[in-house]
Amino acid sequence: MTKRYLSIVTFCLLAVVPVRALLAGDGLYPEVPKAKARFSDTQECVEPLEDMRKNHMEYILHQRDATVHEGIRTRQHSLVECINCHVSDAADAARASSEKHFCSSCHSYASVKIDCFQCHADRPVKSSDNPSLAPSAMSHHIKHDHSAEVLTGKQLRALANGGANDE
Question: What beta strand segments (E) does 48-92 contain?
């Protein structure tokens, strides 16, 4: 009886895999919304598609470090630029919490939690809404007070925990 039960369960599990692949379009990736623009005349995205699928997080983390730690701001791997290009600015456009959102479509499929949109906008920010976000001024969209005290990692963790101190 146990062998028969195990055989039935195994068969059911194996039957689900091809069905899920068919529902995912080409079987390898979820349905992803198309970009609204091209990076350049010769290039669709900032990097080749397969490279972006595999390494986009590395690019975003590198951009974050260059921006936050070194003050270097470029458009090529900017999260703002990704959102501006890949997410609709329509009033009823999907939010990051929806599987129809550009980022969430793949992250939900891969069971990866993203927390970018706790701080960053999940929809395009129109330059008319904030003149400092116009493409020509993109490198200056965050103002820094360099005279402010530099916080230690411990202080930053305490702030992130709502001001609670770990000591």
Answer: none
